[in-house]
Amino acid sequence: MSHGWHQGIFLAVVVVVTTGCGPGSVNGSPGSAGSGGWSSFPVPIYADASILSNSQTQQDFMDAMAFWEGKAGKKLFDYKGQWAGGTPYQGDASNPTGANANVIFFQNGWPFGPTIAARTTTFTSGSTIQSGIIMVNPGVNFCEGDCPNGQYKTSERNTFAHEIGHFLGLSHVNDTSNIMNPVVIPAQTLTDVKVDTVALNSLIH
Question: For residue range 12-30, what is the model confidence (pLDDT) as tens digits?
């Protein structure tokens, strides 16, 4: 049986602190982003030096992973540490054709508009995610952690959490208190931020 690949693309947009996602494709036909999940957990994931060079940025990434594991009630990620294998994706940054590993990284030479804060791309066989990358725009005016006095900045931690939700296979929702809402939730704590547990459980079990 042959398997096509599905590329799901998700975008986080700033300025009005909203996020957006675009469609993927299955064998050249339009497909809906967030339609599949991983076959097993925990999923290996790396961070590159651009994430790890700042201790608070690294902590924001750890907090974002812990948020999803707390909601899932199980270990979702096998964090492998620093990615040192070169470019994490195949093809061009503006249209990657595959992932060399599951990596979150700041993409220097940002190929998209300046108002796009991050982009998650997953690659699937059928409806099962095989790999994924999370590109983050280094030009965005992020604030870290709880973002004290960061009312005019975009929450780095909440952006990471939102993109990791896409990495898991989730799409946007209408609930404004849900981390997957297109409008970025203001930073403070992730403790009271909601997720669609039915949708999450359908992807992780």
Answer: 544 334 443 433 322 222 2
| Spatial CB neighbours of 29, under 8 Å, sequence gap ≥ 6 | none
Burial readout 95-132 (b: 16 or more C-beta within 10 A, e: otherwise): ebeebebbbbbbbeebebeebbbbbbbbbbeeeebbbb
Q: What is the pTM of this model?
A: 0.86
Which domains are assigned to the chain?
Answer: 5-14+38-204 (3.40.390.10)
pLDDT tens figures, 37-57: 999 999 999 999 999 999 999
